[in-house]
Amino acid sequence: MLHIYHFSYGWLTPILSYIMSFTGSLLGLQCAARARSGEKRLLWLALAAVAIGGTGIWVMHFIAMLGFSIQGSAIRFDVPLTLFSAGTSIVVVGIGLLLVVTPHPRLSALLAGGAITGFGVAGMHYTGMYAMKSNATITYNTPLVVLSLVIAVVAATAALWFTVNVRGLLAAAGAALIMGVAVCGMHYTGMAAMQAHGGEHRGTPEGTDPLQLLAPLIVGISIVTMLLLISVSLTAIDHDLDLPPLRPVTVRPAGDDVAPPPVKFAPAQPHTDDPWGMARSDAAPLTDDAGTPYWPTTRPTPSRKR
């Protein structure tokens, strides 16, 4: 059996993968919160699916894969299968969001969405692993594979629950931290199930070098995700600032009709070329007893007796 290295670059790849999982999850939760408001629901759900499925899961997976190596074996990636795994992750997350983020979410929808999304994410993981070509023979430990499936379903169900119940940026950040741990835990559990044996094939396998394929995709998606996160967060703050302050509503008993206070009018003034009194230096705005100005109606300021 060949030795497998999951941290070829030390803690760099696991830390970066967790940061991207957290960032994608946070952006997805922000978009899901917008979808709950009812405005452009499908657009915000699509953005949430791309953020969680694309950045939070797929980008995290392949950043971690950059630190993966097998003793004495070259690694290449099948480009179509790699891109297919990205599409799979986004689609299954989108299905889960459509089932759960509704005006009246139900427990049955949450469980169904969690199962669909969890098994779909696990399928993305193992599709991505199959896209990895090596001259070693790859096998899997069945109990660890089953454990990774369980973790994926539980993590997906928790993530969908967060998209419905989380309110506020701080709560979303806390939920995203938990989601990042769950996604990374599922990934490394699935990777621990892998076993490599010396194969009969020698030489470099067919495919694209991991850095040549993954580095541009990861950098591009990461930049777009960061910009979207900043934009969505800032627009959320603007939206909160634009909301009018809440005012208490006085409920009057039935039949208690209270007449509004009378409005005072200025005494009639003789006709002049300046009907608004703007040219008069002694003009003052008429106010009621509470001191509320009624402008531009004016009345003369009483003159002092000499």
Account of the 3D structure:
It is a single chain. The chain is mainly α and 306 residues long. Helix content is 58%, strand content 11%. The chain is built from seven helices and eight strands. The strands form four sheets. The chain has a two-stranded antiparallel sheet with strand order 1-2. Strands 3-4 form a two-stranded antiparallel ribbon. Strands 5-6 form a two-stranded antiparallel sheet. A hairpin with a 5-residue loop joins β7 and β8 (293-300). α1 (12-36) runs parallel beside α7 and α3 packs across α5. The model is unreliable at 240-249 and 271-299 (pLDDT under 50).
Question: How does the SSE layout of this entry go?
Answer:
Layout: E1 4-5, H1 12-36, H2 41-66, E2 69-70, E3 75-77, H3 79-100, H4 107-131, E4 132-134, E5 136-140, H5 142-165, H6 169-192, E6 194-198, H7 210-242, E7 283-287, E8 293-300
Antiparallel strand pairs: 1-2, 3-4, 5-6, 7-8
Helix pairs in contact: 1-2, 1-5, 1-6, 1-7, 2-3, 2-4, 2-6, 2-7, 3-4, 3-5, 4-5, 5-6
Keywords:
globular; mainly alpha; 8 strands; two-stranded antiparallel ribbon; single chain; 7 helices; 11% strand; 306 residues
Q: How many angstroms does the end-to-end distance come to?
A: 114 Å
Helix content: 55-70%
Model regions low in confidence, pLDDT < 50 over at least 5 residues: 240-249, 271-299
Q: Mind telling me the C-alpha Rg?
A: 32 Å
User: What is the H/E string?
Assistant: EHHEEHHEEHHEHEE
Mean pLDDT: 79
Per DSSP, what share of the residues sits in E-state strands of 2 or more residues? 5-15%
In spatial order, strands of the major sheet run 1-2
User: How many beta strands in the DSSP annotation?
Assistant: 8
Global structural class: mainly alpha
**Biggest β-sheet, characterized?**
2 strands, antiparallel
Shape: globular
